[in-house]
Amino acid sequence: MNAPDPKDLPPRDLVEPPSKSERKRAAHAAQDLGEALIGLRQAELDALGLPEALLEAVREARRIRSRAAAARQRQYIGKLMREIDPEPLRRALAARRECDARETQRFQRAEAWRRRLLEEGESAFDELCSLKPDLDRPHWQRLVSAARRATPAGAATQGPAGRELFRALRALLG
Asked: Looking at the chain, which terminus has fewer C-beta neighbours within 10 angstroms, N or C?
């Protein structure tokens, strides 16, 4: 007996439905994305243009203090997340993380320069002046001197003068 001609067979979907494991992974990914939404500030959340039911579920999740109830609410948010396209949300959250990372780098760079100016003194100040030739030297020398006088050697905290120097460095290096 000959095998039937493939053209004579009824058409089959070439794409198989997702396996149970794939569906579970997708559900967990949606729930994780929903948990990230819970951590956003309200203004950031409003800017995403989420459906009202999802927005309300996220607001409710923020109010819940019971651990078990919070877990159920996160699962509910995950269920609601499966009904929308997650890609715009992923992109928005990635952009937010990128912005946060840049801000952290700015903070660390300003803090490193503050520390160097206080510890290394004139050599660090000359290097900063060579990096920023339009720097108002007398003004910056006063800032550094005031911060050095107000911050004892080895102190873990900085006084108002040290904070003022830090803010000036953040604005300069921004």
From this structure: N
